[in-house]
Design brief:
The complex is a heterotrimer of chains A (331), B (372) and C (350). With 372 residues, chain B is α/β, with parallel strands linked by helices. Chain B is built from 14 helices and 20 strands. Chain C has one domain: ABC transporter involved in vitamin B12 uptake, BtuC. Classes of the chains: A alpha/beta (331), B alpha/beta (372), C mainly alpha (350).
Chain lengths: 331, 372, 350
């Protein structure tokens, strides 16, 4: 597993002057691997936007380093950064004449000359990006004539055309209705799992992210940022702690979990209670079939530890993240 | 005759063009902005603009007979071939004496035809003998060039002049006659026209008469040690009241006419913007009040009061001692410059009713009380 | 894709043709009637055949004036486009940052100072010739421009810059008003005439310099096409695409200011072309791509300026009408029409 984004003791905040710098939270040290789909969440004012601005070099961090694909961002030129990281924002952009194809083509700007002339490869990549985002049919339309969901896809296609390993998305679901949200999360999952894109996006939509992302980066004002798989954060009560209110997965609203491509392997889980619910949720999210009676492996919870037993061995894990990583190795 | 023109000792060649007309050689008597001296078969004309510290090349002109070739020692000078037969006169003070001297056919172009009052000039314009080459302050260069004039007389003006005028390829002569503050100095510019057109005998005769009469009137007032009535001038326009400076043309006329101009000690020779309260504080009690007004119809005290109610508090207004110059009726701008004697006589007649009792006013009149 | 390209090229060529046609009309018509045959033979080198006065009218007046109209029209249009893109505001134009009003202040200041030192109206002082006014205008424009460049480094958001620019425009405008209040009548008249704008202030001698200076600016603007396209996406996207926003912002400001300052210095504050032409260009070509918009704005600006210059000098209209009134008189209804048309379209689309 390749480490794609690594934050090393990163301090973010605002500095009105050099002496008077105000850090929003303790230094952040987290990382994500190539192909990960990670959601950044937390209550308003936690500093998500600030972190995004720091990651996209829009503001300077107050301290620490950002590594993308092992390269220190402080040492790279804007042009070099543009090949590592692309961004998708919710800002409405462009005038009434800007076309979808113009916007997506702009993703190639870091790679083309001063006249912005596109070669065959550029065109191919643009076509692919339009295809991946599912908006080939919109290419000739103006941005203004599109719905919010379509615009979002255009910006994603632009990011894809930019051909960067890492994509940052600021609140991509913010203005979308439910069907558009489903389409969006499906697209993000496809991009991360099948096209090896590493995607970090911010969102408030806990239902959506808990059932779909590989990891959550959880933030709250003046609290250290923590990283973990959704079920760990929920089972351990961190999520409640950071948001300040108890969270319950609202299955009735929409079952996002059905979006994962199912695997053929099944896992047997005995037991009832909140912790077991989250264990099952984590497995389903990963695409495993969960059975009460039979399975290739058997899982249970005892003394706050997750116990995995198969025909030969029994192993114990502190967190669901470690457990699911181990299960992934099995199949 | 001694050399009346001194060529500066030329240590370097570039200085050789620095001619200077000495006082003894100057043929002009009152004008301060222009000097003329005889040089060989021609005349040297120097425009000594009040603001310029040094003699500059562009201010020196050689008037040289068309029939003769110009000696090489004058190579550096701008040469105007005389007599000038095709003139463009951008100011009415330039063409009006030419008309009076019967040189109508020498005027090819003028400016602002809409403001011309002189009937001869209006006829010439209608007949197409004179072209209107400037309108609303903007020169129509195409028309100007197409007249194929020899010389353009222009008032130094900011827009496009003289850079744009130079491009016409026509000789240019700045004509800062309005810079003269003395009435006779301003009138004497008609003599410059005489030298240009080769009619200096006629212009000299004309000017001598004017100067003699002016001085005579002035002496008349001086001798009589009369009480000097106080006077103010002009009125507010768009909230600004521009008063003539103490060294201006009008201030000089007031002085010569035996009036006590309230702002006679203002050092300016132009006009000074003052707000109306300052004017009231200092000048509302003046005996006379001279205003100029451009209107085809008659003007009245009622109209004056309508313009600004504060005028009603002026002593001159209350006593009906407002002196009016209606420039649209009397041709003040076109002709008065060459009749300072008449302007002076008008003022003496109005300010001192005992003097010049049978003088018929031309440019200024005491505004009669309205018929109620 | 290729079809699109072809259409763009054909449209640009049509504009160019319109420009050439307008140029010919500008050479053919003026307050003095010169037969087109004579005009053509004069420019084909048979100048011996025509009268000297007509040669001067053509070479020294009509031709330079038409060229100045072309160059100033193109320059102002591009300066307007740069401003509208930089601020992502369709109402921005070269005058919005106070650069033109800085030029006006320069002229007013020069006239006033000279006037108050000598007690004379400055216009009576000879040295306030058109070149003197040009220099004063240029100095005033540069003053504002450098101030803007200076503060642009400390400003996070272009909107702040826009607001500060508008404040500067008000500030210089009111200073100009104050100066006018204390000025001599003759100087106010000179200032008013300067404010009317003219394409006739440049003769054949200064023409190469003026044309060269503007051409240089236009050339640089073409090199900025890609950056401008990125800026249209917003600062953050542009930055993410590898653009050095601060540097480019300053470069664009400098370029727009440079074009405006030179043109204002020579032709006076010519309104409207900078505001209107970019809209016309966008509407004609239905694009936001600056690789097309810049040449399109140049050509449209030149055509509009030539057209206005022609109208201002139409023989029946008696001399030179103030170019500044003509540009707005013709431009404003056109832009209103364009906007209404657009509105109708977008209603149909939605």
């Amino acid at each position: 597993m390749k480490e794609m984004l690594k934050l090393n003791k990163l301090v973010i905040g605002y500095a009105s002057s050099k002496k008077d710098a105000k850090a929003l939270m303790p230094p952040i040290s987290v990382s994500m691997n190539s192909g990960d789909l990670v959601a950044l969440t937390g209550p308003n004012g936690a500093g998500k936007t600030t972190l995004f601005r720091a990651l996209s070099s829009n503001i300077l961090p107050l301290g620490g380093e950002i590594f993308i694909d092992q390269q220190n961002m402080r040492k790279l030129h804007a042009r070099e950064k543009s090949a590592l990281l692309s961004i998708v924002l919710t800002d409405r952009i462009g005038d009434q004449y800007m076309k979808v194809s113009d916007v997506v083509a702009s993703g190639r700007y870091p790679y083309v000359g001063i006249w912005a002339r596109l070669n065959k490869l550029d065109r191919q990549i643009i076509d692919q990006s339009l295809h991946l985002a599912g908006i080939e049919a919109l290419a000739a339309r103006t941005l203004q004539s599109l719905s919010d969901g379509e615009r979002q896809k255009v910006m994603i296609a632009k990011a894809l055309a930019q051909d960067t390993p890492l994509i940052l998305m600021d609140e991509p679901a913010a203005f979308l209705d439910y069907p558009s949200k489903i389409a969006l999360i499906r697209l993000l999952k496809t991009l991360s799992s099948e096209h090896n894109k590493t995607i970090l996006f911010s969102s408030h939509d806990l239902d959506m992210i808990i059932s779909n992302v590989d990891k959550i980066w959880l933030m709250a004002p003046q609290k250290p940022m923590i990283s973990g798989i959704p079920e760990d954060l929920l089972a351990s009560g961190k999520m409640n702690d950071y948001f300040g209110i108890p969270y319950q997965l609202a299955h009735t609203v929409f079952d996002y979990a059905g979006l994962s491509s199912p695997k053929n392997n099944s896992v047997c889980v005995h037991g009832v209670g909140e912790d077991y619910n989250w264990l099952r949720h984590a497995l389903r999210r990963k695409g495993y079939a969960v059975s009460e009676t039979k399975g290739d492996i058997v899982l249970r919870i005892a003394d706050g530890k997750y116990i995995l037993s198969d025909k030969q061995v029994i192993s114990k894990f502190d967190t669901l993240e470690k457990l699911t990583n181990e299960i992934d190795k099995y199949f | 005759m001694l050399a009346l023109i001194v060529a500066f000792a030329c240590t370097n060649q570039h200085d050789s063009k620095k001619f200077k007309i000495l006082d003894e050689a100057n043929l002009m008597r009152y004008a301060s902005g222009v000097r003329i001296a005889k040089v060989d078969q021609g005349y040297l004309l120097q425009l000594k603009l009040p603001w310029s510290q040094s003699v500059q090349e562009q201010e020196l002109f050689l008037l040289w007979p068309d029939s003769l070739s110009v000696p090489s020692k004058f190579n550096q000078l701008t040469v105007i071939k005389t007599p000038v037969n095709k003139l463009i006169t951008l100011s009415s003070t330039q063409w009006s004496p030419l008309l009076k001297l019967g040189m109508t056919d020498r005027i090819l172009g003028i400016s602002e035809a809409g403001y011309v009052l002189d009937s001869t000039m209006r006829r010439l314009l209608v007949q197409g003998k004179v072209a209107e080459v400037a309108k609303n302050g903007q020169i129509d260069f195409e028309k100007l060039v197409s007249t194929e004039a020899e010389l353009v007389l222009y008032s130094p003006d900011p827009m496009g002049i003289p850079e744009t005028l130079k491009r016409t390829g026509i000789n240019l002569l700045p004509w800062p006659d309005y810079m003269e503050n003395s009435p006779l100095g301003r009138a004497e510019w008609l003599r410059v026209l005489g030298y240009l057109t080769g009619e200096q005998a006629a212009t000299d005769r004309w000017f001598d008469l004017v100067a003699a009469e002016y001085n005579q009137l002035k002496n008349l007032v001086d001798k009589q040690s009369l009480p000097k009535p106080t006077i103010i001038a002009e009125k507010a326009f768009n909230g600004q009241w521009y008063i003539p400076g103490g060294r201006s043309y009008l201030a000089k006329i007031f002085e010569d006419a035996g009036a006590d101009y309230i702002w006679k000690d203002e050092p300016s020779n132009g006009s000074i913007p003052l707000d109306i309260e300052t004017i009231i504080a200092k000048g509302s009690e003046a005996t006379f009040w001279r205003i100029s007004h451009a209107s085809k119809s008659d003007y009245s005290y009622a109209q004056l009061l309508q313009e600004n109610e504060l005028y009603g508090s002026f002593t001159a207004f209350q006593n009906r001692k407002v002196i009016l110059c209606n420039t649209l009726k009397n041709g003040y701008f076109e002709r008065s410059q060459y009749e300072p004697n008449v302007v002076l006589a008008d003022f003496i007649h109005i300010l001192h009713p005992d003097l010049l009792t049978d003088h018929q006013v031309v440019y200024h009149e005491l505004l009669m009380p309205d018929n109620e | 894709m290729n079809n699109l390209h072809k259409r763009v090229v054909i449209s640009l060529l049509l504009l160019l043709l319109a420009g050439l046609f307008m140029l010919l009309l500008n050479l053919f018509f003026g307050s003095v009637t010169i037969h087109p045959k004579e005009v053509i033979s004069a420019f084909l080198g048979h100048s011996a055949d025509i009268a000297e006065s007509r040669r001067i009218i053509l070479y020294e007046f009509r031709f330079p004036q038409a060229i100045v109209a072309i160059v100033a029209g193109a320059g102002l249009a591009v300066a307007g486009l740069l401003m509208q893109t930089l601020f992502r505001n369709p109402l921005a134009d070269p005058s919005i940052l106070g650069i033109s009003s800085g030029a006006s202040l320069g002229v007013a200041l020069a006239l006033f100072l000279a006037g108050s030192f000598s007690g004379q109206a400055a216009v009576n002082m000879g040295w306030f010739t058109s070149i003197g006014l040009s220099m004063a205008a240029f100095a005033g424009a540069l003053m504002v421009l450098f101030f803007l460049l200076m503060i642009s480094g400390r400003i996070k958001h272009v909107v702040t810059l826009l607001i500060i620019g508008i404040m500067i425009a008000y500030l210089t405008g009111s200073l100009t008003g104050l100066l006018r209040y204390y000025s001599q009548k003759e100087d106010i008249q000179a200032f008013v005439i300067w404010g009317m704008g003219t394409f006739s202030g440049v003769g054949s001698a200064q023409l190469p310099f003026f044309t060269g200076a503007i051409m240089l600016g236009l050339f640089v603007s073409i090199l900025l096409s890609k950056s401008l396209n990125m800026i249209l996406l917003g600062d953050r996207y542009a930055q993410n695409l590898g653009l050095n926003i601060k540097f480019q912002t300053r470069l664009i400001l400098l370029l727009a200011g440079y074009l405006t300052a030179i043109i204002t210095a020579y032709a006076g504050p010519i309104a409207f072309i900078g505001l209107a032409v970019p809209h016309i260009a966008r509407n004609l070509f239905k694009t936001s791509d600056h690789r097309i918009l810049i040449p399109a704005s140049m050509l449209s600006g030149a055509v509009l300026a030539l057209f206005c210059n022609l109208i201002a000098r139409l023989p029946g209209l008696d001399g030179n009408l103030p170019i500044n009134s003509i540009t707005s008189l013709i431009g404003a209804p056109f832009v209103i029409w364009v906007m209404l048309r657009q509105n109708k379209q977008s209603i149909l689309e939605s």
